[in-house]
Amino acid sequence: MMRIRKTVLATVSTDLSRKHDVYLDNNCTEGHFVKFNTESSPMCYGIDMNEKLVEIRDGPSSSSDLIKAFCGYLYDTMVFSSGRHLWVRFHSPTYIFMLGDGFSAVFEMVNQLPAPFSCTEYRQRHILNSTTGSLASYNYPFYHENSVQCIWNIFDGVNREIRLTFDFFELPYSNDCKDAYVEVNDGPLTQTNL
C-alpha cells in the first residue's frame, strides 16, 4: 500500500507486473481543491467485469462519495474534488487478465474549480432555454482536453433573435480550423445554417 499526503504536484504510476492496491489520500491546504488527471489505465478482461480497477472518491476515505469508477482504457480524464480531499484506489486482482502498462495519473492542488456553467466530462450536451445565460468550454478556465466536443442548443421558446457575446476567446492556432474551433449554427436541430 502506498499513501501520499500533502502533495502539491505529483505523478503516480503503477505497473501490472505484480498484484497490489495503491491508495492516494491527498489532503491539500484549506481553501484548495484536488485536480486529478488520469493519463492511462489498463484494459482488463476477466470473470467479473463489474469490478472496477480504479475508484475516485470525493473525500478522505473509501466511504466518501464516488466520483468515478472504471475498468478499461481511459485517457485524459480530469476530475476535481469538491473540497481539499480526494481518495483514489487502484486495485489489481489476480483473477483478471489485464493488458497495458498500468495506471498513470497526475494530481495537483488548485485554488479554483471549473466554472459551474462549463462543459464537463459528464455534461457535454446542454439545452439552454432562458432569455439570458452563460456557457463555457470544457472545464473552463482550465486547459481543455483533446477530442472533446461540447454542444449547446439555445432557444427561448418564442422564436426571438439570440445574441452571443464572447467575454473571452482563445483557441490554439489551426490552419484548417479542425483542431479546435467554435461553430455557431442558426435554426432548429434538424436543419441548421452556419
UniProtKB/TrEMBL annotation:
Keywords: Disulfide bond, Repeat. It holds the Pfam family CUB. PROSITE patterns: CUB. SUPFAM superfamilies: Spermadhesin, CUB domain. The keyword Disulfide bond applies. CDD domains: CUB (cd00041). Residues 119-194 form the CUB domain. InterPro entries: CUB_dom (IPR000859), Sperma_CUB_dom_sf (IPR035914). This is CUB domain-containing protein. It comes from Desmophyllum pertusum.
